[in-house]
Amino acid sequence: MMCWRWNKHLLTGILDSHIIDYPTPKNLNYMWSFGSTAGICLGIQMLTGIFLAMHYCPKMEYAFYSIEHIMRNVKYGWLIRYIHANGASMFFIVVYSHIFRGLYYGSYMYPRHYLWMSGVVIFILMMATAFMGYVLPWGQMSFWGATVITNLFSTIPFVGREIVEWLWGGFSVNNPTLNRFFSLHYTLPFVIAGAAIVHLALLHDVGSNNPLGVEYYGDKISFYPYFYVKDLFSLFILLIVFSVFLYFFPNVLNHPDNYIPADPLATPAHIVPEWYFLPFYAILRSVPHKLGGVLAMGGAIVLLLVLPFLNTSRVRSTYFRPLYAQAFWFLFFDFLFLGWIGQKEVAEPYTTLGIIATFYYFFFFLVLVPVLGILEEKLIQYETNKL
After folding, report:
1. Looking at the domain that runs over 24-252+259-271, which CATH code has it been given?
2. Cβ-based neighbour number of residue 196 at 10 Å
3. Pick from 211-225, 228-242, 360-374: least confident
4. Which one from 204, 220, 222, 344 is the annotated catalytic residue?
5. Where are the domains of the chain?
């Protein structure tokens, strides 16, 4: 009788089926809260971005000073701007945690391969949006970061230079570039929100993975109130960490050079992107050839997209894959190490260390993931034959 009452109306029926009574494995831990907190981070970024866009001026002469105007003259403008700037970092922390949780528990395996791939698409859109947002304050690092990163497209054979000039809207980073980046930065979050809805629909189609990585349909509980409470607790912890950065260290995650107005005639001593791009920036720098570096950096992201097709294991959870668990933790610390290398100058020993760390990153996805799956299958067959 209760089901009939709820399903009389389409909207309430959908809400009940997918939010309230959604059947969820009862052994999910707090690592499964990163998805909902990522959604909340997206909402915060979109809301604060709309308010900032009301006062921002996408012109080279006024962009930097419009940020100063927001900080000094707009009521609570400093708070909105710091929420948006530090919120991007919190968003990436949550999403990176979400990705590594998926790697650890095998959430990229069938039947959730399309779910994983949709998540990687969201990650790529996030990176594009964040890069364009990094350009908008029009500080020194904004201008030179935009110059360096857009110049990477010049490595495309035959048409590379034309693509770069088309992106710039001229022969250098200038007003058309800033206008285009502002328009895309404002638009892409709505695309990300649409992709997140698709991601959620795919999740509810195949169901959530669980720490054991086994499919079982009987021992499940409703999402509300059990996992609402877990998600709220995780959100509370995130807000505490967010508040510490927001009120006590609002500028620690930003580069000091970006508080200097952009000057095309003064190149910073060391051009670096935001911290959440540093691992991929380190991979880019680890290959001496410009085109090779671009291919390596792009390949590092594409590997995440095609990971379900590289996997050969039938066992999902790392609980039952001790060799994979060791390789995973090496990858985790290798990724952090790449982030540290990315902020260092291009000199020894950082160059050699970056090459070694880059090698292991590709070795994990291209060699260890398929080979360990085959090895585990052989060991299972061997133990089965012994019985």
Report:
1. 1.20.810.10
2. 18
3. 211-225
4. 204
5. 24-252+259-271, 275-387
Of the candidates 387, 323, 326, 335, which has an alpha carbon nearest to the alpha carbon of residue 361?
335
Contacts of 276 (CB under 8 A, 6+ apart): 88, 89, 92, 96, 130
Q: How far is CA 328 from the centre of its chain?
A: 18
Catalytic residue among 231, 257, 334, 376: 231
Q: Write down the pTM of the prediction.
A: 0.93
DSSP code per residue over 318-364: GGG-HHHHHHHHHHHHHHHHHHHHHTS-S-TTHHHHHHHHHHHHHHI
Query: What is the homologous superfamily of the domain 275-387 according to CATH?
Result: plastocyanin oxidoreductase (1.10.287.980)
Indicate whether 267 pLDDT > 70: yes
Catalytic residue flag (residue 231): yes
Is 255 catalytic? The answer is: no
24-252+259-271 and 275-387, same CATH topology: no
pLDDT digits (tens, 9 = 90+) for 128-164: 999 999 999 999 999 999 999 999 999 888 898 999 9
State yes or no: is 204 an active-site residue: yes
Centroid of chain to Cα 97: 9
